[in-house]
Amino acid sequence: TVQVPEPSSVVRTTCPYCGVGCGVLATPDGQGGAGIAGDPEHPANFGRLCSKGSALGETLSLENRLLHPMLDGTRVSWEQALGAVAGGLRRTAERHGPESIAFYLSGQLLTEDYYVANKLAKGFLGTPHVDTNSRLCMSSAVAAHRRAFGSDTVPGCYEDLDEADVIVLVGSNTAWCHPILFRRMVDARTKRGTKLVVIDPRRTQTGEEADLFLGLRPGTDTALFSGLLVHLADRGALDQRFIAEHTAGFDTALDRARAIAPSIAATALATGLPEAEIGGFFDLFARTPRVVTAFSQGANQSAQGTDKGNAIINCHLATGRIGQPGMGPFSLTGQPNAMGGREVGGLANMLAAHMHFAPEEVDRVRRFWGAPRIITGEGMKAVALFEAIERGKIKALWVMGTNPLVSMPRADAIRASLRRLDLYVVSEVMADSDTARAAGRRTVLLPALAWGEKNGTVTNSERRISRQRSFLKAPGEARPDWAILSDVARRLGHGRGFSYLSVAAVFREHAALSAFENNGTRDFDIGALSDISDGAYTTNLPVQWPLPKRGSAGTRGRTRLFADGRFFTFDQRARFVAVQPPALAQDTSAAYPLVLNTGRVRDHWHTMTRTGKSQRLSAHRAVPFCEIHPDDAGPLGLVDGGLCEVASEHGGAELEVMVTEGVRPGSLFMPMHWSDATASRARVGAVVRGVPDPVSGQPELKATPARVRPVAYR
Ligand code: SF4
């Protein structure tokens, strides 16, 4: 059920965009709109909002909303729609086995929605093929954490950004993509003289504001951080006691680093950076105890993304700079609930509650859920999952809260493959998203609640669980995702496992699973909330995990982990990782001589199904564009403001030319936001190949070989 507050009563909620997770005060006007302000009491933002957050009130219209269930293009009742989904899943499992069913979830979903989807698929349908658009976002950081710490744990918190003396930003346009965190960094510079180092092949707004900008060659981050590890060792800047007492694998990792970047000169050769700049960065890092290295999509969205994360973490472990105020490696999550999805296990390589597939973990989850068909191993990650549809291996696909026909690599091939499905279910807010419009035969569209209408929790980049609360009426026949999933489960005969009376009941079960037989060897534990009352669920969040054990005094979570130097590996030691030498997954060629990078603009979110409704936000960058260096634009006959076609061997897009020295010669950049619903031929997914990282499965979205040519405006 959706509680609708009286007009003018202020509702505390959380911004639905980036992983900063800012608190928002929404004041509904009683006519479907709301006034929006930052929540001064929320510890992520203390009242501030960025351009996207402050424009939330402009994005609440019901234009193009999916308001009723649709079956094969025809409006139907919920009864018919749910029957079609349950019947289709049952038939698919009977004919082709449960592993022919796949779910593709989203970091936009609330934790409770994610939990129920994961439980239904992995415990009751018996399919391991549950992956998420977070695979495209931060799965390399997850894999790097697990390799280094034995757990997917972000060690630090936002206060560390306030207390650092040096903040190194790797592959992160924080000023545009995590704007409120960037404001905290700028404040730290004002208050304590914090230095900002920005490492990025592209000179973004963040790079413009850096004290030191390192515009390295694409894909060479592991060389830079290998060089740094060598420099720390040669300069005597290691924390030998920490290495000896709390880590393993240092010598092997250092040997590998020496093979990759034995000196500053070799690092310069590999990265294309001047030796003086590298030396300046290395010395600054070596002599400053309070260093935070924050990394984001520029590191993660890479065929070597996991190694990039570990190359960064290696330098922090080598100096013992982890788990203490103002220091540590810090993965910035992209989406509002990328972290919550990880907590419930909504990735193909996780089971549930930060558990994986050790036999005792499978047995523990099976018993907790009472699951008849618990899976015992990993499923296919996003790229492989969609390729399996092309090969006819996946026969039923349920997409929830995401737009893969815009964002997935090789999106056109995916679109073509959907006709091979026996069942295509899309839980959506918008009727005109590319993914919803791809509907054909055997398609069920399910109207889901949007931000402002739905209730539940999200977890931000610093492990802080906050509430999204409803302040608007549910429009049309839209329903909460967890309730839709539960109804389907009941129709499949699993009533006992899915008889939730409220979203709080789902949360309590999720919290209880995190603590079930958890003797402290698992990082994720919010068991203290497993008996939270409906009232406290409404009022007592946000909190940061891990929480104190249930029954112990106090409910304050820990702001930092690893302060005692004990990690979640079997011997409680962190692991150094010997990383691979840098190499792009695909080389440029005579036909495709340029390297295409992709990313965000300041004022749009993902495929702009929400931000596109705000004229103010759309005005910042009104049309899709391609950045190119003047040295490349001139010989190719490209002029600023003209039209060009960017093409790879997988597809093409038409964009406005933006000539800028912000990109390196030999590089292109195009934003990820435009879709067929908002522009003609401007989808990133149609152009990029997305070779996956062999460890994390995260696809390379930053370095696709491409060509560009001018085209005439039609
Ligand atoms: Fe929303 Fe992120 Fe902006 Fe905060 S920084 S208001 S969470 S988009």
Task: Jot down its keywords.
single chain; 714 residues; alpha/beta; N-terminal domain of TfIIb; Barwin-like endoglucanases; six-stranded mixed barrel; 26 helices; binds iron/sulfur cluster
Strands across the major sheet, in which order?
A: 5-4-16-15-14-6-7
- CATH topology tier name of the domain at 594-711: Barwin-like endoglucanases
CATH architecture of the domain at 594-711: Beta Barrel
The multimeric state of the shown protein is: single chain
Question: Roughly how much helix do the residues carry, as a percent range?
Answer: 25-40%
CATH class of the domain at 594-711: Mainly Beta
Number of helices: 26
Strands, count = 26
User: Rough shape?
Assistant: globular
Main sheet specs: 7 strands, mixed
First-to-last CA distance: 50 Å
Q: Structural class, judged by helices and strands?
A: alpha/beta
Q: What's the gyration radius in Å?
A: 24 Å
Distinct small-molecule ligands in the complex: iron/sulfur cluster
Question: Short description, anyone?
Answer:
33% of the residues lie in helices and 16% in strands. It has 714 residues and is an alpha/beta fold.
Describe this structure in words.
The chain has 26 helices and 26 strands. Among the domains are: 11-59, ADC-like domains (N-terminal domain of TfIIb); 594-711, Barwin-like endoglucanases (Beta Barrel). The mean pLDDT is 94. Strands 5-4-16-15-14-6-7 form a seven-stranded mixed β-sheet, covered by helices on one side. The protein is 33% helix and 16% strand. The site of iron/sulfur cluster has 14 residues, from helix 1 and helix 7. This is Molybdopterin-dependent oxidoreductase. Residues 8-64 form the 4Fe-4S Mo/W bis-MGD-type domain. It comes from Methylobacterium planeticum.
